[in-house]
């Protein structure tokens, strides 16, 4: 029987066949802003077509799509497809768009995510005034977005890669890529955001579990684990931003994360199942076992006690959790 160490080594074995994003086609959910927009823009700059999947495009994302919208021989192109990632039919539609517009797919980044918003939050249960999760809905929107959507998207991608009617079938000489956005929350615990933490722990396990696909069938599933990244996910949400000491805490940039995502796909040493942590001016592999955990600039906030006090204030209210 294989030991845990053997399984870890097998799941992160490097596939030495070269892979370049140039001339490829990618689906990127959440590309309307933040990290995923930076990643989509980086792919386009390297001559890779991108299907933008999101509910809407921020002005800066619309500018990128407009810049790369024309059909010009030898040039990459961007296409926007409005997508609610909690709807599996809309996720499937992204693959149809990639086929129709570009004749196939090589790269998936199911990057859309939320950071325990009040509308789907453990501390605002279904039925509470802040929550949009219906009492009889049988799911949390935050988990549908952060956990179920990347799992289902990856499942769809692998099926697509194996289907010879969708273009050249995946193989060790025709590799494909999936890059997932996890978080340093996947290595930590946080009473303030338990659903987000649960989802990101799940993502790390999912990424590592699919690691052996790289060396066996040519599908590399890797992930990045960003820390504190200066994106609208933080800066435009006061309930999150209050955790940050603007004079002390350091932000990493979405561009740093995008570069790590590119490394996950192209670097032959980043074998399947690899998770790269990204802080400010630092990127490192996260070990499955006995990892020291996140540290350094861009991997911490100084005012988490504010959030903890808030949680206990909510729990002190009469009737908490009763719909």
TrEMBL record:
Gene3D superfamilies linked: NAD(P)-binding Rossmann-like Domain
GO CC terms in record: cytoplasm
GO terms for MF: oxidoreductase activity
Pfam families xrefs: adh_short
Keyword flag Lyase: no
Keyword Disulfide bond: no
Highest rank taxon of the organism: Eukaryota
Keywords: NADP, Oxidoreductase
Alphabetized InterPro entries for the sequence: NAD(P)-bd_dom_sf (IPR036291), Sc_DH/Rdtase_CS (IPR020904), SDR_fam (IPR002347)
Family in the record: Belongs to the short-chain dehydrogenases/reductases (SDR) family.
Name the UniProt record assigns to this protein: Short chain dehydrogenase/ reductase
Organism annotation: Mytilinidion resinicola
Lineage: Eukaryota, Fungi, Dikarya, Ascomycota, Pezizomycotina
């Amino acid at each position: 029987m294989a030991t845990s160490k053997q399984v870890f080594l097998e799941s992160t074995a490097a596939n030495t066949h070269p892979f370049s994003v140039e001339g490829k086609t990618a689906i990127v959910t959440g590309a309307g802003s933040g990290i995923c927009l930076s990643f989509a823009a980086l792919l386009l700059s390297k001559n890779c077509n991108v299907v933008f999947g999101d509910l809407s495009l921020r002005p800066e994302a619309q500018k990128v799509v407009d810049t790369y919208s024309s059909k010009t021989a030898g040039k990459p192109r961007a296409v926007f497809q409005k997508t609610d990632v909690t709807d599996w039919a809309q996720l499937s539609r992204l693959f149809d768009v990639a086929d129709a517009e570009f004749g196939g797919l090589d790269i998936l980044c199911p990057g859309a995510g939320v950071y325990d918003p009040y509308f789907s939050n453990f501390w605002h249960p279904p039925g509470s005034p802040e929550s949009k999760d219906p009492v009889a809905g049988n799911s949390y929107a935050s988990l549908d977005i952060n956990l179920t959507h990347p799992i289902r998207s990856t499942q769809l991608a692998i099926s697509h890669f194996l289907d010879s009617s969708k273009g050249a079938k995946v193989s060790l000489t025709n590799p494909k890529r999936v890059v997932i956005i996890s978080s340093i929350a996947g290595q930590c615990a946080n009473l303030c955001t338990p659903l987000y933490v649960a989802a990101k722990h799940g993502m790390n396990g999912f990424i590592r579990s699919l690691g052996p696909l790289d060396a066996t069938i040519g599908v590399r599933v890797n992930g990045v684990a960003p820390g504190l990244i200066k994106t609208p996910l933080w800066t435009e949400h006061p309930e999150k931003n209050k955790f940050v000491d603007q004079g002390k805490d350091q932000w990493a940039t979405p561009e740093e994360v995008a570069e790590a995502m590119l490394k996950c796909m192209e670097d032959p040493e980043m074998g399947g199942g690899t998770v790269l942590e990204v802080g400010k001016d630092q990127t490192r592999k996260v070990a499955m076992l006995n990892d020291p955990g996140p540290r350094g600039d861009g991997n911490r906030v100084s005012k988490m006690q504010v959030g903890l006090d808030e949680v206990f204030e909510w729990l002190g209210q009469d009737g908490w959790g009763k719909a």
